[in-house]
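Table 4 source record.
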Amino acid sequence: MVDHSRYRRLTPARRRSRSLVRRPLRRRSPKTAPRRSTLESALTVTETSSRLPLIQSPSAQLPSAQLPSAQLPSAQLPLAQTQYRASTHVRRVDVLPPSYPSHHDRPNVKSRLPSPLVVRSRLLLVWGLLMCGLVGLLGNLVRLQVIRGGALQQRAEAQHGISFHPFTPRRTIIDRQGHAVAMDRQEYTLYAHPIGFEDSSLEHKAEIAQKLAPITGQSPAEILERLNLRDSGIPLKVGLSEEDADRVRTLYVDGLDLAPYQARFYPYGSLFSHIVGYVNFEREGQVGVELSQAELLHRSTPNLNLFQTARGLITPDGVPEQFNYHEHLNLKLTVDNRLQRRVQTLLAEETVRHSAKRSIAIVMDVNTGAIRAMVTEPSYDPNVPLMEADIPRLVNSAVSHLYEPGSTFKPINVAIALESGRLQPTEMIYDSGQVTMGTWTIRNHDYVSRGARGSLTITDVLKYSSNVGMIRIMQKLDPAQYFDWLTNLGIGDPTGIDVPFEASALMKSQAQFTGSLVEPATAAFGQGLSITPMQLVQMQAAIANGGSLVTPHVVEGLFDHDDQRQWTPDRPEPFPVFSPSTSRLVVEMMEKVVSEGTGDAAQVPGYRIAGKTGTAQKVGNYGVYADGLRVTSFVGIFPAEAPQFVVLVVVDEPKGRNAFGGTVAAPIVQKIIEHIIVLENILPYRGQE
């Protein structure tokens, strides 16, 4: 079939010209023309195809397999895929190929081009679309990088990062000699799972209980009772050491489980309990240095931010440098465990002997304020869980207990009077044995047996511990001036020691103190005001060291394993209150108290010791001084020729008619000084060289 569409578009003249130029051969009449064979028809088509334009046969566009068998004979199938004109039975028509039209038939291309205004509009539209896309892209980048950058970065880090706070043990606390007094160690909780026993019979459980009894410190019956509670998860013992855990492992008993955990361990038990304190189950300090120095004891380790791959592996470049670094700094105390142990032993013995309510002992370096020993009895073991009845034992009475110091405060009053210029060292004081102040009558402790002593030197007033003599000395000062001196010494303020829960001294207000005759009189011999034992030690150290108040402390600093100091606490500078000459005079007077007076029980042969006894009445439940309740004490300065230590012992409510400072507390101080002589290798006094 021939496409005549292009042929029809030609003009009539064009059609005629084409017919004339390329007129086909005259066809024979069907009646006269001989009948051609199939081969002759094929040759005719082939012969004429060289002269006529080719017309694409529709059959040539289809594969031979798709040609209908009725259109082509089987002999002409190879020729069906060629181009041919037409059969002799069909009139030949010249048609130009559609891909090569005549130039007369081409459309007017110039007339089809858009106008410049349209072109420009289209360009502007395309440019605008591109600019809008570019602006949108830039805006999205700003939104992602600037506005939401932080949030997206956090999400990325959350997906690829691990943030955790590594566990770090608390710093070890060591004493002055480098011995660990508080440390972290791994302990275990022993659990029993009877469901996992090889034999669930009662006899087998009893056998296991018999094996565990010596390890856990419990009776076999108690363990067996626990094993029968349930089938699994029975806690048998908390706080097993590594050695005890190894003993459990060697039993090879199925059904026993050891759960490790980090625990605070105090190797010396109750020896340092009131200084070091203890931590709770959350490893938080509760009392002592564990509480006051919690920030130092807790190593400052920041959170570790590690990066991981999609498989969860830590990338090497994501591990910080400090990950494997562990600094080994120990918190060093000023306390010597050798002296501390001796003081605790002496105090515990005397507390039991005198049936006392409590006993307190403090040994301090007079020049630095370093505490060498501080003991309160009764004590407690921080390794053992406390019961409600043990709570009073937690109180460190050396810094938290207020008491009336009694005659141990007299040397301080003498120093105040001498320093104020109202009292001369050689002045004589008249002791009448008793004195009336308003409605109150004040007597000496030995007035019944000795009566009035008459004229006394200042040294005699201290040596005989005369209450009336001290009242006469302090009456030389104006009450307001006396009050200012007490305030200047820090009464009413804490000492600043680095252990928690320090109490502040109590004293009457200035109006009460200056408006009453009895208040300055009772303060002259150490009653009517309340201080802590630590504050008395601080003021006595000011007399011993030349007149300066130093800050008591138990923390020396942070030291490494080579005992090299890495950090020192900031402490106030010593505050001068007395002149060196006044301090020297008072120490010499106190030395006479030990060598000739009421403190003779504190003497150590070959050594010069200064001191002062104290026996103060104690207020009872009804707010008045109660008969039989007293606080005995003794303060010693050693050695007197060049003071290094001040030692204070306070025994609260000792029983017995002969319970005084010189009979109860002074002997304890004497034994403590003997131990200091051995530890510090102090030579006997050999006179002036």
